[in-house]
Design brief:
Elements: H1 11-26, H2 42-58, H3 75-86, H4 89-102, H5 107-128, E1 134-138, H6 153-158, H7 161-169, E2 173-181, E3 184-192, H8 197-210
Antiparallel strand pairs: 1-3, 2-3
């Protein structure tokens, strides 16, 4: 996808993608550039739809019938303590975002529009799969960051930009080992059409036969 080539992409990610294309050619694949024009909208769309679903689904977890339960002075106190102590910070954040976008006055402005964009993203993939069998691209726009080095949740969300559109479209996708950056593994993403898991796995297998990244460790390179 031409949209995967973004300004400021680190050279190692660009080089990795280029090598991946060469490996695919060696396997007998024909490389075709495609367009997924609504890719840039995947990130905000996902972080409206997913928190909304999380908020709706997790509303049932109150410590009464199953799961973790905190002790409270009364029923309401037990509810509040169970949900505050049983959910981590990221889960609470997504519940709050989801509750907001589903609330009266914001449902049409956020959630409904996000669902419409989700359909556009899905249509992009349908059009692309009329001319190709498998889509290949980077997994993340940057190499792996050090554990605990990113404190801002928005920065963490931005790292998902290339994988979110696949989830929104409900397509099978996988990450395959494709190299190292700063002694940390980096992957290439393969995306298949609906019900094409067999083709997707066979494509990854052929890539694996051409490379030894799945066997390598940084100290061996």
């Amino acid at each position: 996808p031409k949209e995967s080539r973004v300004d400021g992409m680190p050279k190692e990610i660009e080089d990795l993608w280029t090598k991946g294309i060469e490996y695919a050619k060696d396997c007998g694949a024909e490389i075709v550039e495609i367009s997924l024009p609504h890719t840039n909208y995947a990130l905000p769309t996902y972080y409206i739809v997913a928190p909304a679903e999380a908020s709706s689904n997790l509303a049932r977890y109150d410590g009464v019938k199953y799961g973790f339960r905190s002790k409270g002075e009364n029923l309401i106190d037990m509810y509040e303590k169970t949900r505050s102590e049983g959910f981590g910070a990221e889960v609470q954040r997504r519940i709050m975002i989801g509750t907001y976008v589903l609330s009266s006055g914001y449902y049409d402005a956020y959630y409904l529009k996000a669902q419409k964009v989700r359909q556009l993203i899905s249509e992009d993939f349908k059009k692309a799969f009329q001319s190709v069998d498998v889509i290949m691209g980077p997994v993340a726009p940057t190499p792996a960051f050090d554990l605990g080095s990113v404190k801002d949740p928005v920065s963490m969300y931005l790292a998902d930009i290339y994988t979110l559109s696949v989830n929104l479209a409900g397509l099978p996708g996988m990450s395959i080992p494709a190299g190292f950056s700063k002694n940390l593994p980096v992957g290439l993403q393969l995306i298949g059409n609906h019900w094409s898991e067999e083709l997707l796995l066979n494509t990854a297998h052929q890539f694996q036969l051409k490379t030894d990244w799945h066997k390598s460790t940084p100290t061996e390179l």
